[in-house]
């Protein structure tokens, strides 16, 4: 899959940042269902110094701040400064949480200075994601851990799958929106796992599946439509938006059970621990 240039990635997130802040509170309960397994996987403890990469409007940085307490430190970072407006507003009064615009491929932190790193659905947007992994390894203390949360395959994540299916029916040219597949770059996490191991990280992989039931009266797809498909949604005419929404509802009928939709969610959590001493494969 082609990964756009960094300037294009910045422009995409710049355009979607108002929607991410707008929906932040509405999605907080759902976001926490993703946050807690990620924080458990990386073993966030009171007093930890934690960097959250691609924080957006504050997830999971705000949840991390609750765990580390005032004896700890959380840095919410994002490539796009405007994406951090939400976390700055939501973190008002939390003295141990700081927001910082930073490029995960060139992090402004000293070597071996942080205990933990979290990244929820962000590593796939780094054009040089291998360099981002190397930077994480560099700034982690010995025994420090980094955890990446990754989407599973597109068909295994109903909401995104349905929105994309509907878009292909409504819009005559989808080639301009190939970046919409980027979230699923590591649906097979093997390339990222291999790179982490090459950096000397001791890794383990966890796969999670959810089957939420959502009432058919709830427009649960509106937030991802405006956030994750922001470029297409903003460029669409009112007639195209209406047709898109109708196509989404039609596609969702395949998941209907009486007055509910039975959805699917599949994701991976890939954790790497920085060992005290380099580990080398044994020679035969």
SSE map:
Elements (H helix, E strand, L loop, with lengths): L5 H18 L4 H15 L6 E5 L7 H8 L4 E6 L6 H6 L6 E5 L12 E7 L8 H11 E12 L6 H13 L19 H9 L2 E10 L2 E3 L6 H6 L2 H6 L2 H15 L3 E2 L2 E3 L2 E10 L10
Parallel strand pairs: 1-2, 1-4, 2-3, 4-5
Antiparallel strand pairs: 5-10, 6-10, 7-9, 8-9
Helix pairs in contact: 6-10
Summed up:
Helices cover 38% and strands 22% of the residues. It is built from ten helices and ten strands.
Notes on the structure:
- The protein is α/β, with parallel strands linked by helices and 284 residues long.
- It has a single domain (6-274), classed as Vaccinia Virus protein VP39 (Rossmann fold), CATH 3.40.50.150.
- It has ten helices and ten strands.
- Strands 3-2-1-4-5-10-6 form a seven-stranded mixed sheet, with helices on both faces. Strands 7-9-8 form a three-stranded antiparallel sheet, with no helix packed on it.
- Helix 6 (158-170) packs across helix 10.
- The chain is globular and about 55 Å long.
- Mean pLDDT is 94; it is low at 280-284.
């Amino acid at each position: 899959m082609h990964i756009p240039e960094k300037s294009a990635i910045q422009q995409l997130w710049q355009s979607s940042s108002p929607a991410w802040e707008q929906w932040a509170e509405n999605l907080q309960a759902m976001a926490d269902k993703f946050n807690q397994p990620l924080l458990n996987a990386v073993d966030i403890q009171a007093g930890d110094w934690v960097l959250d990469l691609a924080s957006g409007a504050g997830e999971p940085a705000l949840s991390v701040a609750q765990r580390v307490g005032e004896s700890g430190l959380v840095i919410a970072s994002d490539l796009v400064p405007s994406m951090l407006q939400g976390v700055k507003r939501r973190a008002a009064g939390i003295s141990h949480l700081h927001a910082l615009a930073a490029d995960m491929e060139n992090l402004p932190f000293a070597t071996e200075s942080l205990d933990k790193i979290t990244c929820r659905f962000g590593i796939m947007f780094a054009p040089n994601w291998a360099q981002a992994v190397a930077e994480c390894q560099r700034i982690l203390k010995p025994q420090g851990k980094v955890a990446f949360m990754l989407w599973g395959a597109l068909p295994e994540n109903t909401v995104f799958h349905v929105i994309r299916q509907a878009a292909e029916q409504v819009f005559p040219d989808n080639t301009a929106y190939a970046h919409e597949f980027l979230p699923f770059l590591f649906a097979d996490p093997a390339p990222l796992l291999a790179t982490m191991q090459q950096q000397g990280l001791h890794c383990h992989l966890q796969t999670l599946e959810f089957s939420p039931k959502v009432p058919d009266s709830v427009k649960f797809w509106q937030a991802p439509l405006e956030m994750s498909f922001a470029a297409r949604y903003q460029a669409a005419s009112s007639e195209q938006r209406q047709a898109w929404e109708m196509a989404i509802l039609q596609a969702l009928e395949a998941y209907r059970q009486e007055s509910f939709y039975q959805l699917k969610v599949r994701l991976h959590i890939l954790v790497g621990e920085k060992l005290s001493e380099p580990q080398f494969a044994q020679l035969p």
